[in-house]
Amino acid sequence: MSGSTAAAAAQRAAGERSPASAALPGAWRLGLARGAMEIKLFFRQREQVIFTFAFPIVFLFLFASIFHDDMAQTGSTASQYYVASMTAAGIMSTSFQSLGISIAIERDEKALRRLRGTPMPPSAYFLGKIWLVLVTGVLETAALLIFGATVYDVDLPSDVTGWLTFGWIFVLGITGCALLGIAISSVPKSGRSATSVVVLPFLVLQFISGVYILVDTVPNWMLTIGSFFPLKWLCQGLRGVFLPDAAAALEPAGSWEYGRIALVLGAWCIGGLVLCLLTFRWKSRNDG
């Protein structure tokens, strides 16, 4: 076969292969498939499902029962306050805590290393995690709000503006917390230590961000520390959605500060992404 004939044959073969190459699924499609798999795996673990959805509901029941008279001066109820707090804690639990622990375990079990060696683009893996966080976060929040409205007559937003405010706070909060969870997943040395490394700061943040304790009783220096992290602003924004305007007097600034909330949560979305890019590892430290 002459050189020109061989070249023509090679071009025909490349032309025949190009449609197949173009038909390969992209990162977005693979991310959807990966997300569907992550969601299926999540719901197959019954204990994890029960804990995830029961956690904020049980704490709402406990705190609303114990502190039922503590919000009388604002014309509201403790259940109204704690439904906002537990929603914020639930959002951070399904994003920051869940991803921080699960990714560390997958890295320790070398699942991430095997995935990195496949043709799947890395972005598809993270898209799958994002779909898992969104689905579980929405379902957990819906279950909590239904429980609060049914059992404690919690007043939900009555207009479109209230729900829109809830929506952008939810999206910015869950995005920033998810990125922070991905970043902190590189801190534990092993999957066995991941729970301790992730849960401890999450627990501390809940106390200094006004989740369990009324915000006007938290020492100012603790609130100052908490203000560097997204949970404090997530709680404050959701209190603005669920509590009457008179309750804003409990806040350090005497107002809900929606502009600052958007600024801080948006900054955490950008900063969290930078942290992920700088710190994320596909292999454990023991693998070199």
UniProtKB/TrEMBL annotation:
Family the UniProt entry places it in: Belongs to the ABC-2 integral membrane protein family.
Subcellular location as annotated: Cell membrane; Membrane
Primary site of residence: membrane
Keyword Transmembrane included in the entry's annotation: yes
InterPro entries: ABC2_TM, ABC2_TM_bact-type, Nod_factor_ABC_transporter
Pfam families named among the record's database cross-references: ABC2_membrane
Membrane topology of this protein: Multi-pass membrane protein
Regions crossing the membrane: 49-68, 80-105, 126-151, 163-184, 196-215, 261-280
Protein's organism: Actinacidiphila epipremni
Keyword terms of this UniProt record: Cell membrane, Membrane, Transmembrane, Transmembrane helix, Transport
Ranges where the ABC transmembrane type-2 domain occurs: 47-283
Protein known as: Transport permease protein
